[in-house]
Amino acid sequence: MPLLRVFLSNGQNLTTVFQKLTTALFLCTTLYASESITLGLTGVTLKEDITTIMNLKNYLNKKSSVAVDIKFAKSYSIMESFIQNGTVDVAYVCGSTFNALQKNEKAELLVLPVTSNQTTSYSSLIITKADAPFNSLLELQGETFAMSDPDSNSGSLVPFFEIVKNGFNKERFFQKVIFTYDHGESIEAVLSGFVAGASVDSMVYEAYAKKKPEIKHQLKIIDDFKGYPVPPFVVQTELDSKVKNELREIFLAMDKDKEGGKILEAMAITKFTQPTEISYEKIQKIKEFLIKRRNR
């Protein structure tokens, strides 16, 4: 079975190691793959963990009857366009991205991650340095703050929603907002002291802590906004049903073998489950709420 092709879009800088890996994977796929689909990864994946990403592509390549290429997008809006124009067939996206795709009938749910709390819900975490004087999101007024993506539920929509809900103008609340386009980069920005705080995906934070457990002593969670539907794996509506079903079965069985289980653990996912009885309406309502109160 051929290896996967991994590359970054939109001019993102690559590390030397990543460049070498990309070149090798591209050559392997070009030489051997006769049919392939593309899995898109976004800010809900810890991009710094190259090992897990490589393990994931190897696992999918071994289990699937078609070659699976991996494509990174810098932002959720770019990934949305990739799915709409057919560049990407399957993607791990934010709930807000799925809402937009579902509205245009461009994508459907494939599988849902089950988090470490054994549910299909996750949190928007507000983090600061452990010795910082802040104890809640609202205490960060006037500070520099990191967010992952303007369309990110946990990384942008939820903290802005909480700010506006409490009577503040979201455009004036922080001294400055920096969009990192990566939850891992938001965590790094807090660790380095570049920003006073950040809003991050609880699953990415957990995955980061597995890789670097020392952050549990270096950072603190000052707010935990719970109960949001997890970022889903979605599939393009026009993808062949046989391929959809095969991919779904591969994901659903990952926790049942040693190799798949290790990959899931590194991604802070317990297992995958069928996308039944879940709604992303809560995220859509927050987005609509913020649009109505823009500049207020």
**What is the β-strand count?**
12
Largest sheet: 7 strands, mixed
Helices, by number, come to 12
Number of domains: 2
What gyration radius follows from the Cα positions, in whole Å?
19 Å
Q: pLDDT under 50 segments (min length 5)?
A: 1-34
Explained architecture:
With 296 residues, this protein is of the alpha/beta class. The protein has two domains: 6-117 and 230-278, D-Maltodextrin-Binding Protein, domain 2, CATH 3.40.190.10; 121-229, Periplasmic binding protein-like II (D-Maltodextrin-Binding Protein, domain 2). Helices cover 41% and strands 22% of the residues. It is built from twelve helices and twelve strands. The chain has helices spanning 16-32, 50-63, 76-84, 95-103, 153-165, 170-173, 183-191, 202-211, 215-218, 241-252, 258-266, 281-292; strands spanning 6-8, 36-41, 67-72, 90-92, 107-114, 121-129, 144-147, 176-179, 197-201, 219-229, 233-236, 271-273. The chain has a seven-stranded mixed beta sheet, with helices on both faces. It has a five-stranded mixed beta sheet with strand order 8-7-9-6-10. Helix 2 (50-63) links the parallel strand 2 and strand 3 (67-72).
